[in-house]
Amino acid sequence: MVVLAGVDVGSTHCKAVLCTPDGTVLAHAQRRTPAGGHSHPVAPLQRAALDALAECTAVAGRAPDAIGITGMAETGAALGGDGEPLLPAWSWSDPRPAAHAERLRRDRGAAALHAVTGILPSPKVPLAKWLWLRDENPGVLRRMRTWAGAADLVAQALTGAVGTDATFAQRTMAWDVHAGTWDEELLALAGLDAGRMPAVHAPGEPVGRTDRRTDARIAGAGAPVVVAGHDHLVGAWAAGVRAAGEAADSMGTAEAVITVGDGPPDVRAAGREGMSYGRHVDGRHWCVVAGMSSSGALVEWFCDRVLGLGDAPAADRYRRFGEMVGRAGEGPTGLTVEPYLYGRSAPEPDPGRRLAVHGLEARHGLPELARALLEGAAHQARWMAEVQGGLTGGRPRAVTLLGGSVRQEAWTAMKAAVSPWRTLVCTVPDIPCLGAAAWAGAALGLDPAALVCERRELRPPPGTAEAYRGAYQEAFLPAVRGTGGADGTGGTGGTGGTGGTGGSGAKPGP
Questions:
Q1: CB-side exposure of 372: number of CA atoms within 13 Å?
Q2: How do residues 165-175 score in pLDDT, each as one tens digit?
Q3: What is the pTM of this model?
Q4: What is the sign, positive or negative, of the torsion defined by CA atoms of 82, 83, 84, 90?
Q5: Which of 57, 58, 244, 331 is the one with CA 20 to 30 A from 476?
Q6: If we measure between CA atoms, which residue out of 502, 131, 125, 128 comes closest to residue 351?
Q7: 314-326 vs 409-418: helix axis angle to the nearest 10?
């Protein structure tokens, strides 16, 4: 029996699974991702991922035949000539390169950069980081022989080789998504060239193979190691979102909506809407990505600031929140929430937008407010998917919900009710790990599409769907577009809005 391993190097946890090619899980484990400020110490990060993988092999009683790795984008480390890190891995969340991102926007033009690279300037992109190094730590930049993303660093620990995947390369803002090559002109802005970038491998092509230096707890020599790609895309692909017209809604603390197409979207329109685009993990299809940085974060905010559960275990927090939502009853609350703790990155980007509540009346209490937060996030997800459909040639045939927040069943029911397309839910845990494992199998000649993760369709009651879809058109869109509040006055409706809860500055979306 062939056994495949998948590893997901996340901002909070490093996860691993061992599975069969069809996705049957044999073992899973996780370790906390080491972090300090806006960085991750490289050796401990690699060790956390390898320890999770070693636990899986111990439970399964055998080593994998191939290993695939996915994880967060934009986070990475500068490596010297001996392959050793010159600094800790630099997190995507570090705001220090903001001035360099703004300079890129001003000097090169956001639309021009987006047309070539598929993404808009932000502090998280590695190109802005390299420009910061050029100005603030030029010695490191001179000694840098290559750059390795978080997943690439784990592959290096297994094989001694550094390589990456196109879905990671296209998040650097130095990769031409149309030509499929490093952009020498953009690299030159930081004094770099393509020779100092990692090799970009085709889907399923190994970065290298395990050898005698590999931790004996994990695998013997010769197992291929594949960098499978960006976790949002790998998870969507594993959930069955693989063909044009299919979309995924990856629900977590932040949320990403991904729509697949046969070719690039309307590039200019995608840029105006604040959406990125590039290749899907299979290398054939394209995809458009939009982010909402304060999706699950709305639930965290409510639990912390309103319910006072800041010190409670996560399971207790979510249980209490779910009970609160349940007390509000079924159907629309009559409230309209603009769900923006940190500004809106897409559609119609507006960094100054903040959390606001329209239509609040004396009859409303905390249960209705809790439910309304989920309604606002559900409306926002529909808006993102709807705009992406226009960019890629038509309304999505279906949207698949995945991620940790699908456990909030009231939320997924709302998403099905507000959406005019089929809504599917995939409750399989650790799904990016499974996608990474499937692409590792490609290195053995296996068909990665053999992986099948169960999805079920959500069918809302017709009356509930009609009410939610009416609220979307008549209240939500006018409120968030600023063409009038939910009461038609341009104000907050009822007793007013709640704003400024998320602090200053917009968190960048995908």
A1: 24
A2: 999 999 999 99
A3: 0.91
A4: positive
A5: 244
A6: 502
A7: 50
